[in-house]
Amino acid sequence: MAYLDPVAGKAREGKPAAAVTNAAAATATAAAGATPTKAEYDALLADNNALRTKLNGLLTSLRAGGVIAP
């Protein structure tokens, strides 16, 4: 039975993807008033950019590991 063949099983195994660390804690907080300040907006933007970078790194790792299509 082919599925019990350890050599054939090893050949079908995928290669592990590179590790991606967890995203850092958010730095943005709820706006103090009805309209966010520039500092509040900038903190939210920085968090968004950090998460985008983390997601792109994760997708790159998954592609390199053969988990998702390039």
Explain what the structure shows.
The mean pLDDT is 84. With 70 residues, the chain is mostly helical. It has a domain of 34 residues. 49% of the residues lie in helices and 0% in strands. It is built from two helices and no strands. The longest helix is centred in the C-terminal third of the chain and has 27 residues.
Entry keywords:
49% helix; 70 residues; mainly alpha; 2 helices
- Counting helices, strands and paired strands, the structural category is mainly alpha
- β-sheet strand percentage: under 5%
User: What's the pLDDT, averaged over the residues?
Assistant: 84
Q: Low-confidence segments, ≥5 residues, pLDDT <50?
A: none
Secondary structure: helix percent = 40-55%
Largest sheet: none
Task: Detail the topology: elements first, then pairings.
Elements: H1 6-12, H2 38-64
Summarize the structure in short.
With 70 residues, the chain is mainly α.
